[in-house]
Structure to design on (134 residues):
């Protein structure tokens, strides 16, 4: 069981921003910018391109909804997307609020993100996600 599966199961706490029957989105605990969110399928698959076509398409649509919520909640020009997948053997998409292209630098990290600010950020995105689903 991956760390992401444990997060989805509630065994490890997370700053959840969105969820449906197939996908779970939560803040990255080592964000490169405020609002940096991970989208993962609930089904444990190592590599994103090993997902079946239907699930991959649904994951992209879910990610788009999450990205729209991030853009509403976090001051940014756009939301960048990256698929790296080397650090955790569970398919995932990074969604990163961008003010400029340098904001997509994974070597940069938000210094000491406080639990209060993480919770506040997750709640803001979650509220925008819920409002967008209506």
């Amino acid at each position: 069981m991956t760390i992401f599966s444990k997060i989805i199961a509630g065994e490890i706490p997370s700053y959840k921003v969105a969820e449906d029957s197939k996908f779970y989105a939560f803040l990255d605990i080592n964000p490169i910018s405020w609002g940096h969110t991970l989208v993962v399928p609930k089904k444990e698959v190592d590599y994103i391109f090993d997902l079946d076509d239907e699930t991959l398409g649904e994951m992209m649509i879910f990610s788009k909804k999450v990205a729209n919520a991030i853009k509403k909640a976090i001051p940014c020009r756009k939301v960048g997307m990256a698929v790296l997948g080397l650090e955790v053997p569970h398919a995932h998409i990074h969604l990163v609020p961008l003010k400029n292209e340098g904001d997509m630098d994974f070597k940069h990290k938000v210094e000491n993100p406080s639990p209060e600010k993480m919770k506040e950020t997750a709640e803001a995105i979650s509220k925008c996600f819920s409002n967008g689903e209506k």
In short: The mean pLDDT is 94.
